[in-house]
Sequence to fold (207 residues):
Amino acid sequence: MQLKAIVFDYGGVLCFHPSDSQVNELAGLCRVDRDTFLKAYWTNRGPYDRADMTPREYWQEFARLTGRTYSDEEVAEFRRHDVQFWVHLDAKMLDWAKRVRAHGLRTAVLSNLPHDLGEHLRNEMHLVDNFDHHTFSYELRLVKPEPGIYQHVLEGLGVEPDEALFLDDKIENVEGAIACGMKAIQFRTPGQLASQLNGFTGMVPPL
Fold:
């Protein structure tokens, strides 16, 4: 079937992961070492992205896991840094996403992310203005690789599962898309993706 849409993950595809210096800086603000920070940071990220936890609850649980106590002012600072973790955009991928849309395909962002980041992407960075649709986990109370979140993006784009190609850096999310009938590629680098797009020659612009 003809390809009609490309769906992009956000973190790790359209933006870079946080740098070592960013992680070390926030770990220092939290008064913990890097390994302790990363373990506590990711432990409840799924519930946080699903909006099962408020930002305050997420950082309270972070404090419990690290054996620390934080003031409201400190938590506010942590939240600002957390958003800044995920705003360094990959210009090459964003340019390609725009060319994909100009080529006549519909485009969407499908991302697991918390409220703070989603609202920043929408209202401050206006990222979603460059796409036909966006599906953010915290608004649906669903996270990848749960089937309902893929169905939401497909309905928003108005395409059948096998008419959409999904790009994500995490294999479990790629497998979730395939289980829903979508085409999917695990993204590592733009160069790797370009080589795997050969099967879609003529359907998408070159990367």
